[in-house]
């Protein structure tokens, strides 16, 4: 840690340590507050928001801003999505083909609506209407990464000098709303339609009480780590190969696909150094997925610098309120019926709540919280990551320039 020019910089080791503390704090708060449990608010979201508020208070009182080194957070994201790929079976992928196409079609149409809404609302404020795109797919569905990548273009071509601040603020508020949206929507749908899983299934993220009682030994855990690392290496090579061809994708996307490929290409009787079968859908993989996702999201939320958003709160809250209402309406009246009005559809809606205003990890955390409470949904955990971790980035890369050129 070092304090210079009013900024307290926290190194990687302490950042991860505090992320674990935040995760435990969220767990304790969820245990103490029935409302949080009832509406399946993810534990890292609870803890992360509380700590980000505390850091904002520290800044208000002392003038010291806390900044975190977040390199380890990106490693956790790779771990998590690799476990999702390892858990994917060809049978599920084939059965999820039609739902995948339906959800992708709805999501693309929603992205167009999100940008049209942002441009329309921005027209009521000072400045060019196209600046509203910073409150559309640039920062909401796109998240912080897309906002940071596109902000210089808005600043240079459109003269929006605070484009970076606007984009980050929209992404931050959107992340909060997305984190709080998925659980309540799923609870409403499950309760109103009396939905239950078709059959009992092992959790994709987290360990059931039954498996927790049996325990996971050291070899099971190391076997899962080895499988994740093998897939991550293949994913890294695939990522570099695609980059050479001009297609740049986030590393976690190619690791997800590497996990899917290896899981479905390796025969069950393939000899492995561990002497065990490939650890698809094992308690050890589910446990690592839960740890990686929870710590990643806790670190992301605790590191939000809320005090930087105050000056932009008025117009941003206006556009985000409208975007939030549209997202909820699309979820309830389009996504749920189109996905079949089943329990799986309700879990997908929890994920879509994360996609629509937040990020891929937020979508997964929303679904994980719902699945832990009501039951697993393999279909949701297959199609939602494919839509929001792969296709969205490609569509956004085409959609943003189109709106910039025509509005």
Helix-strand layout with pairing:
Blueprint: E1 2-4, E2 7-10, H1 12-32, H2 34-38, H3 43-62, E3 65-68, H4 71-86, H5 90-95, H6 97-122, H7 143-158, H8 163-192, H9 209-214, H10 218-244, H11 251-265, H12 283-302, H13 313-338, H14 343-357, H15 360-374, H16 378-406
Parallel strand pairs: 2-3
Antiparallel strand pairs: 1-2
Helix pairs in contact: 1-3, 1-12, 3-12, 4-10, 4-11, 4-12, 6-13, 6-16, 7-8, 8-13, 8-14, 8-15, 10-11, 12-15, 13-14, 14-15, 14-16, 15-16
Detailed description of the structure:
The protein is mainly α. It has 2 domains: 2-205 and 284-406, no CATH class; 211-283, no CATH class. Helices cover 72% and strands 3% of the residues. The protein is built from 16 helices and 3 strands. It has helices at 12-32, 34-38, 43-62, 71-86, 90-95, 97-122, 143-158, 163-192, 209-214, 218-244, 251-265, 283-302, 313-338, 343-357, 360-374, 378-406, and strands at 2-4, 7-10, 65-68. It has a 3-stranded mixed β-sheet with strand order 1-2-3. A hairpin with a 2-residue loop joins strand 1 and strand 2 (7-10). Helix 3 packs parallel to helix 12, helix 7 packs antiparallel against helix 8 (163-192) and helix 14 packs antiparallel against helix 15. The longest helix has 30 residues, at 163-192. The mean pLDDT is 84.
Largest sheet: 3 strands, mixed
User: How far is the N terminus from the C terminus?
Assistant: 46 Å
Structurally, the number of domains stands at 2
Q: Spans of 5+ residues with little confidence (pLDDT < 50)?
A: none
> What is the overall pLDDT average?
84
Number of helical elements:
16
- One letter per element, helices H and strands E, the order comes to EEHHHEHHHHHHHHHHHHH
Percent range for helical residues?
over 70%
Query: Strands of the biggest beta sheet: in what spatial order?
Result: 1-2-3
Approximate shape: globular
- The count of strands amounts to 3
Structural class: mainly alpha
Radius of gyration from CA coordinates: 21 Å
Share of β-strand residues: under 5%
């Amino acid at each position: 840690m070092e304090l210079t020019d009013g900024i307290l910089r926290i190194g990687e080791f302490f950042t991860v340590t505090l992320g674990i503390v935040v995760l435990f704090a969220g767990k304790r708060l969820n245990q103490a507050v029935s409302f949080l449990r009832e509406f399946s608010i993810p534990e890292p979201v609870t803890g992360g928001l509380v700590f980000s508020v505390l850091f904002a208070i520290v800044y208000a009182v002392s003038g010291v801003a806390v900044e975190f080194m977040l390199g380890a957070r990106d490693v956790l994201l790779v771990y998590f999505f690799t476990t999702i790929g390892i858990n994917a079976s060809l049978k599920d992928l084939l059965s999820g083909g039609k739902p995948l196409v339906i959800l992708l079609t709805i999501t693309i149409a929603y992205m167009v609506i999100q940008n049209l809404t942002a441009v329309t609302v921005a027209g009521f404020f000072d400045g060019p209407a196209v600046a509203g795109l910073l409150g559309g797919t640039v920062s909401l569905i796109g998240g912080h990464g897309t906002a940071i990548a596109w902000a210089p273009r808005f600043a240079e071509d459109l003269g929006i000098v605070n484009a970076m601040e606007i984009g980050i603020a929209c992404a931050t508020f959107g992340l909060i709303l997305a984190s709080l949206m998925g659980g309540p929507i799923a609870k409403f749908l499950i309760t109103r339609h009396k939905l239950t899983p078709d059959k009992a299934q092992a959790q994709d993220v987290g360990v059931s009480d039954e498996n927790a009682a049996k325990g996971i030994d050291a070899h099971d855990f190391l076997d899962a780590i080895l499988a994740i690392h093998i897939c991550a290496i293949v994913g890294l090579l695939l990522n570099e190969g695609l980059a050479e061809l001009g297609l740049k994708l986030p590393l976690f996307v190619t690791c997800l696909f590497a996990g899917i490929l290896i899981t479905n290409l390796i025969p069950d009787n393939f000899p492995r150094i561990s002497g065990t079968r490939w650890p698809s859908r094992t308690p050890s993989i589910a446990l690592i997925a839960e740890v990686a996702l929870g710590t990643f999201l806790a670190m992301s939320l605790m590191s939000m610098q809320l005090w930087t958003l105050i000056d932009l709160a008025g117009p941003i809250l206006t556009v985000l309120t409208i975007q939030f209402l549209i997202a909820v309406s699309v979820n309830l009246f389009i996504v749920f019926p189109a996905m079949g009005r089943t329990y799986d559809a309700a879990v997908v809606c929890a994920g879509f709540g994360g996609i629509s205003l937040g990020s891929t990890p937020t979508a997964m955390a929303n679904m994980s919280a719902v699945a832990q409470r009501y039951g697993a949904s393999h279909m949701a955990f297959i199609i939602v990551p494919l839509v929001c971790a792969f296709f969205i980035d490609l569509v956004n890369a085409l959609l943003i320039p189109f709106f910039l050129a025509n509005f």
